[in-house]
Amino acid sequence: MEVESFENEEVAKILNDWFVSIKVDREERPDVDKVYMTYVSALYGGGGWPLTVFLSPNLKPLMGGTYFPPDDKYGRPGFKTILRKVKEAWDTKRDALEKSGNVVIEQLRDALSAKANFQDVPNDVAVLYVDQCVEKLASSYDPKFGGFGSAPKFPRPVEDCIMLYKFRKHMEARQESEAQNIMKMVTHTLQCMARGGVHDHVGGGFHRYSVDECWHVPHFEKMLYDQGQIANVYLDTYVITGDEYYSSVARDILDYLRRDMIGEDGEIFSAEDADSAEYEGAPRKKEGSFYVWTSQEIEDTLGENAELFKNHYYVKSSGNCDLSGMSDPHNEFSGKNVLIERKPGSLMASKYGKSVDEYYGILGECRQKLFDVRSKRPRPHLDDKVIVSWNGLAISAFARASQILKSGPPGTKFYFPVAGCDPVEYLQVAEKAANFIKEKLYDASSKRLHHSYRNGPAKAPGFLDDYAFLINALLDLYEYGGKIEWLLWAVELQVIQDELFLDKQGGGYFNTPGEDPSVLLRVKEDYDGAEPSGNSMAAINMVRLSSIFDAAKSEGYKRNVEHLLAVFETRLKELGIALPLMCCAADMLTVPSRKQVVLVGNKASPEFQDMVAAAFSSYDPNRTVIQIDASNMEEMAFWESNNANIAQMARSSPSGKPAVAHVCQEFKCSPPVTSPGALRELLSKTVAAAGSAV
User: Fold this and answer.
1) If 0-12 CB within 10 Å is exposed, 13-18 middle and 19+ buried, where does residue 169 land?
2) Is the pTM for the entire model greater than 0.90?
């Protein structure tokens, strides 16, 4: 529409003569987008972007739609016709139009202000939500190409999260066959995604989605919210399988962000566009121009290794977008290739009579050369907005990688675009991004967040997602990095989140503070889609916080989660597949006592850091890691006033040891251990013990 209508002189004249045109960046103002998208979806049975809505001067919607072609075509009215009809209706039926808009908004307001009928959800019902959601996902699993559902295929990380969560439950119940069935679905999906064209093999990171069923031809946009979540899923799968393949993909994503998406002050940018010019001075941008290759370009760049590379990535002189009828229906990529791995590297290595290391080394060198050539092309536009919620998702991945990746065997080889850095560097990235938010997007006097930043903070206030996703990131920064300041800020932000968004009578959180009268609807979001819902993330945050504090405060967090889940009880029961993360939150709340791993010692010492890595050497979504330096007065004061048991544990830990670990569950603690190996063994025993109890 931008090209067809908004750059058209005739359309511009109509708009300027009869309308006040307002262009909204939906990422900058998701609250405004939500109001009018809800209106269009409710009235016309579906929505999407570009969203086109006509409003009265008091901002009530009159009519709307999505994409309109500039002229009448295929029996559909064009944008110019629509504009004339809206003007005519406004001139002749203004009162009826405004009345209709008011009625619809009031009906939506009633429908969307969901309230709980009960204060909580019974435990025996809550545990079924995960089972029902996993069952539904498994029934939509694609055994050939991986993923859940059919084309277009979106990487929806929350689906993998609940599958891995159920895997853990099966293992605790000693149902190994069922657990392995789930892992096969997850690992096959992650392998197909990483081998497909939806993964940028040359530069790292993942594109938005695949237009076909085989993860081959993507919509080439790269979004920050995808990178953070996908990296976390690969990290979890690495912890479970011990397979370096998954840790390498996680590094690939994080190294892409470090190289291309981070500003001078540590801020992490939002997105890279799909379109770019094919050459300098080209009159029009084209989808994927930056990323696709002709066979000739690869031959000219790679010389003697071109044939090996072309065979590995299915490169053909005629173009390779032929794996599905949906890959390139309009022949836009004729003669072009989107890199995809169709055969395992080990098989290809033996075909060329090379060791796997030598073969992967050649591929890495080839990718580096192509990267250098690609860097000279016109780049897609970089959206350098800094959005708090999306930064939160990425900060979480960087923080978690800093410990999880330490378990890799020494001497591991890395191949471009993976940099192979010391995992500690990822923690530095996470802390720098969090500091940027604290310095530029947080008002220390009001303790409130702004939503986004570009050449200064935007006027939009922080929304529920900003608080919930950032709190999650700060909890990860504390658990994986150890600095008490991040935990203190997370606790403070949770208080503000409750003040601004919590429906104290009805339960759950609204998406906006409700202070701006021009935003006509306050919605309680529950859909875990491309991003988790703020309510799902908030529920998990409070479960995590409840395991850190003593009984009084802990019970307050739990009551809020119970009330929140009661708001969405019907949706959880009838459509759990839309709320996978909230299903996990409901199950987490039923766990009698979350496992605590309390690490006491000198946090800067190598022995302590080895103990932290050991604490995260197994996958356990129902574990909290608490790091304490008993000689730090600020930390001890915090624990004295918030959890005296943990303070006592720190004080009574054996002295003279650089690191001591206590593992506690169901109000019982194991004898302290002082070596990473002993801690790993202890954590594996608690899984077996859980299985015995079942």
Assistant:
1) buried
2) yes
